From TrEMBL:
This is GTPase Der. It comes from Johnsonella ignava ATCC 51276. Associates with the 50S ribosomal subunit. GTP 1 binds at residues 9-16, 56-60, 119-122. GTPase that plays an essential role in the late steps of ribosome biogenesis. Residues 3-164 form the EngA-type G domain. Belongs to the TRAFAC class TrmE-Era-EngA-EngB-Septin-like GTPase superfamily. EngA (Der) GTPase family.
Amino acid sequence: GKPVVAVIGRPNVGKSTLFNVIAGDSISIVKDTPGVTRDRIYADCNWLDMNFTLIDTGGIEPESTDIILSQMRQQAQIAIDNADVIIFMTDVRQGLVDADLKVADMLRRSGKTVVLAVNKVDSIQKFGNDVYEFYNMGIGDPMPISAASRLGIGDLLDAVCSHF
Ligand code: GDP
Ligand code: MG
């Protein structure tokens, strides 16, 4: 079948914004059992001559750090189990935080293909240098993007599709 690409990361890093930019109108929602996992949103996407299924994880906004951590582990596990390529998204404005490192550990141990996107780089002049710290996670080269301003999306999709 078509390759599956999942977007994972902490709440508020911009996963759904990226998903909507890539997916446009072709969105379908699959509800999970309440309280077990979150709703996942799927879309059939094209980039150049490539077709793939994109999954937006997340949807519930957790209140406590404990819940954020456990939900991120769950997301990462769902992505590891179901996706061929994982877009791991971080936020340049919040910088590298402990929760990012925990997910990076899981992803590294899984051996899955990961593309690391550093979002909210709305200006390379302003935020470009802050991207470098994400190399410290040891899961590959961080790719600066701005989902809101649609910057770096083509390069990101090239990187994702190079793994199909
Ligand atoms: P999610 O929780 O990871 O799905 O994040 P959302 O896509 O819901 O975005 C969270 C917030 O970040 C929203 O207020 C978005 O408008 C904002 N956001 C998303 N992408 C960008 C970006 O590239 N730059 C900036 N400055 N804000 C962004
Ligand atoms: Mg979201």
